[in-house]
TrEMBL record:
Pfam families: Zn_ribbon_2 (PF12674). This is Transcriptional regulator. Residues 7-90 form the Putative zinc ribbon domain. InterPro entries: Zn_ribbon_dom_put.
Amino acid sequence: MEMEQQFCQSCGMPVNDSTFGKEADGSSNEDYCHYCYAEGRFTRDCTMDEMIEHNLEYLDEFNKDSEKKYTVEEARSGMKQFFPHLKRWKQ
């Protein structure tokens, strides 16, 4: 049975058991990745737009493993549409 892909509710990165963030007690937080959430809190205090710009620093790495290659403008536009639906950025 195929599991639905989960995404970090802060940065949008795909997450799984090995990349979940951790609570202060060491338990997994399945909403966020370990880059965004550790020891029971967010690792970066930033706005949604700052997170998008941070993610763009990794666009070349993303494109290397992706069938579709995104330009900076395409990636920024896509994230600006996707991120408002993520738990951390919902208004």
